């Protein structure tokens, strides 16, 4: 793989400068009802307030800026369940680059519509992310597009890591950061920043029990493939990604799995207690914090609300499960 150097804090600072003209800071809010639920001081990092409704746009903008003139001319292609695709489409439109996004058939219709609305070509293929990714790689070989992997991209990881930098700029005394993990770019970025600024900050990842590939890759110390069945699109990867895993193995303090029911409950809690629409992957951090509430008591905890792009069907599913 090309340019697989692990980014450091200087790379994140450079990314912060590069995305500053295009993205506003997202807020870090604490909610009394959440604090009461968890028994700790909890801050929500609102990446659902990004212009595409998710954190990945940070990485998309930073990466697209680094493309060579030849790569810009050939255009970019990527596979996504939604948010990464929106990020690439948004950044490509910003910089005048043609984007193609391969999505699984039956992907979140709101996310697909948003990708198309940003001028990208949407190609539906396969029943899950892994099949879409395989077809995306085949198209790359056939046509010579610049393939943007959703995890194995140093510029992408440095870009999304700027969210953690903002957390620690706003609340330097954070004790623990909880991050959702699908491919792992966001958690890898959190590890890079937190451990460089204060090695005592605990970084905890969370994934769905129904799609545990990243968790098992981290636990076993090698890239593995697992069943991929979660309804939480942002957690739905069937195989670990090499670059994020290299970072997570060195720096991630803990990794939890949560059930579909726990994720659904957390989506409802985010609405009830933080007046926030969180998609399933974003709500998983609250589910993890609730599971760990005894260990987190008395600490300052930041949970990353990675996106708000839930579908009405998933929202109804969450509300029905809790009822």
Automatic annotation (TrEMBL):
Its cofactor is pyridoxal 5'-phosphate. Pfam families: PALP. Keywords: Lyase, Pyridoxal phosphate. CDD domains: Thr-dehyd. The keyword 4Fe-4S does not apply. Residues 20-307 form the Tryptophan synthase beta chain-like PALP domain. The keyword Lyase applies. This is Threonine dehydratase. It comes from Dictyobacter formicarum.
